[in-house]
Amino acid sequence: MKRSDLTRIPVVKALLVNRWPQFILRIVALAGFVVAILAGLLGTPVGSRNLSIVFVWIAWWALLILAAVPLFGRGWCTVCPIPMAGEWLQNGALLGPRKRETGDQRSETSSNLQSLVSSLRLRPWPKRFRNIWLQNGGFLLLALFSAVVLTQPMVTAVILAAFLFLAVGAALIFERRAFCRYLCPVGGFIGLYSQVAPLEVRVRDTAVCAAHTDKTCYTGNENGYGCPWGVFPGGLIKNTYCGACLECLRTCPHDNIAIQIRPVGADLTVARGRKLDEAFKAFIMLGSAVVYSAVMLGPWGWLKTTAYSVGSLAWLGYALAFLLLILGALPGLFYLATWAGTAQRGNRRALRQRFTANAYALVPLGLMAWIAFSLSFVFANISYLWPVMSDPFGWGWDLFGTAALNWTPYLSRVVPALQTLVLVGGLAWAAGTARKIAAEKRGGTAVPVIIYCFFITVGLLWLLIG
């Protein structure tokens, strides 16, 4: 498939360069974010009647995992409201950069906000943490407490507020969007799965970037800010760390930035830039999908009760088993599969490199596992959305006349067939990716990795359908 440059279409480029459409979408998202926090803090403790639970973990999650990530990659990050307050403080402006002024003009138009910004001595993010290990740990922590987070509005509200305060705090200490790039648990898995999306931000000609000494896409100019994610667009080879903020599109003086439609999963077979932290993110996401399917959709009532009993001895056993599965069993068995398919079995460095490379075959499998899980979870619970739209706090309101509507599962007969197609498709996709990765070096085979993916898929089919 040949890449198609959307920014060659004048109307599309005008909409993307203009700050107002993006700003309005972010303001709407911020309003929803604040209402969700207030609903969790002030509304009913009954999760199915509270907007914070239904809107965030059913409606937003459905939008994210079933559409936004597979189709648009980092599309959610483009409109995410969490970093907005911190960016306003960093930039000293609510919308775009101020026009460059002389020293006299600057002193005459200075404001309290600008004074605060100028007083900030923002530090670069520590080199040892310039990876996604902290995001991995954050997601694992949320996953361990997921049964409580997904059902108790107060807990959800506290977590959302914590995200907001952490983002502001990081913006007051570190340069650019440190929270988004290195801390946000949601951004971590969006970055991983954005590698399969059919959209990408890339430069048209790397030679143009090399010749442009000012590098305004990274440093900023009067048209836009330097990349908030700390990425130099001229060196982009994958979607993982590009937040699709569109600033480079605004700041490039040579019209060298393109938003392109490309082959699905194009990043998975890019050999350069593969990292162990990303490999473990693949295990964390795949393992979490397996555990969520067992706990929330499986027939074992005792398992669900144990997951809810946070702090109890039984829950501690559940937490230990969860961590051992995700950080021990899954990568351990995968390491054996890599060893079995590698010719250089005695070379530890080569084996580790193959282990990291092979793990990218789990990205499409993990995404399809989450889609299959979400199909069942969302369609079974999305009808809770209609009552809470009329009564978001559970206070007896009926704003739109839907407060009395009863819970009704949707597509219950169709969902199992859809899940089967999704999971089998994920297995085929993972197998094809594994073969391409194995073909990068002679003397190896993808068969053991494909067998590994096959058994994971069978297990998911059993949990979700059988």
How does this model look, in words?
61% of the residues lie in helices and 3% in strands. By secondary structure, it is mainly α. The chain has two domains: 4-98 and 117-264, no CATH class; 282-464, no CATH class. The strands form two sheets. The chain has a three-stranded antiparallel beta sheet with strand order 1-5-2, with no helix packed on it. A two-stranded antiparallel ribbon has the order 3-4. Strand 3 and strand 4 form a beta hairpin. Helix 16 runs parallel beside helix 23 (447-464) and helix 20 (362-381) packs parallel to helix 23 (447-464). The longest helix is centred in the last third of the chain and has 28 residues, at 313-340. The chain is globular and about 65 Å long. The relative contact order is 0.12.
Short account of what is shown:
This protein has 466 residues and is mainly α.
Keywords:
466 residues; mainly alpha; 2 domains; three-stranded antiparallel beta sheet; 23 helices; 5 strands; globular
Reconstruct the topology from this structure:
Blueprint: E1 4-5, H1 10-17, H2 19-42, H3 51-72, H4 75-79, H5 84-91, H6 103-109, H7 112-119, H8 133-144, H9 146-149, H10 153-173, H11 178-183, H12 185-193, E2 199-203, H13 206-211, H14 216-219, E3 220-221, E4 224-225, H15 247-251, E5 257-261, H16 276-297, H17 301-308, H18 313-340, H19 348-358, H20 362-381, H21 385-390, H22 415-438, H23 447-464
Antiparallel strand pairs: 1-5, 2-5, 3-4
Helix pairs in contact: 2-3, 2-10, 3-20, 5-10, 8-12, 8-16, 16-18, 16-20, 16-23, 17-18, 18-19, 18-23, 20-22, 20-23, 22-23
